[in-house]
């Protein structure tokens, strides 16, 4: 599922985050590094945007309004159009139970916000987008 980069030449990343200050911090850095970033503040909007734009990568908060991270992951995996969508969880939580749940639902990685600077997040995005574009 990789969508829009053929049109714009930029890799599309969907950042799903309900805290505007956090989403702005990461969005600005990712855009500075050449990514096209859309932001969704809740899980329902995230699902709609994923289906419409087919981003190369989704950065998904786990606790969200309207539809939380686990519900978003379940919905993605249940829909053949989005079942292979690349998703990395970016959460404030690092409880082993939640991490295991997220990975069990298909998240490629689990990042803890307080441990990842915007610059480090760009490196993570670059790594996973490279894998996604190679089809592995």
Task: List the defining traits of the structure above.
alpha/beta, Rossmann fold, 136 residues, 47% helix, 5-stranded parallel β-sheet, 6 helices
What does this protein look like?
This protein has helices at residues 5-8, 20-32, 43-53, 69-78, 96-104, 118-134; strands at 12-16, 36-40, 57-60, 87-91, 109-112. The protein has a single domain (5-134), classed as Response regulator (Rossmann fold), CATH 3.40.50. The chain has 136 residues and is of the alpha/beta class. The chain is 47% helix and 17% strand. The chain contains 6 helices and 5 strands.
Over all CA atoms, what is the radius of gyration? 13 Å
Q: Kindly state the mean pLDDT as a whole number?
A: 92
Number of strand segments: 5
- Figure out the total of helices: 6
Number of domains: 1
Give the helices and strands as they follow along the chain.
Answer: HEHEHEHEHEH
Q: How much of the residues is beta strand, in percent?
A: 15-25%
Structural shape: globular
The CATH topology is given as Rossmann fold
Derived from helix and strand composition plus strand pairing, the structural class reads alpha/beta
């Amino acid at each position: 599922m990789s969508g829009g980069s053929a049109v714009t030449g930029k890799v599309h990343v969907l950042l799903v985050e309900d805290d505007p200050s956090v989403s702005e911090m990461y969005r600005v850095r990712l855009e500075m590094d050449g990514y096209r970033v859309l932001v969704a503040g809740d899980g329902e909007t995230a699902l709609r945007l994923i289906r419409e734009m087919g981003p190369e990568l989704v950065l998904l908060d786990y606790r969200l309004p309207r539809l939380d991270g686990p519900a978003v992951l379940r919905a993605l995996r249940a829909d053949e159009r989005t079942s292979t969508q690349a998703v990395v969880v970016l959460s404030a939580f690092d409880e082993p139970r939640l991490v295991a749940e997220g990975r069990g639902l298909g998240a490629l990685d689990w990042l803890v916000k307080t441990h990842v600077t915007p610059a480090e997040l760009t490196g993570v995005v670059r790594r996973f987008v490279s894998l996604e574009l190679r089809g592995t």
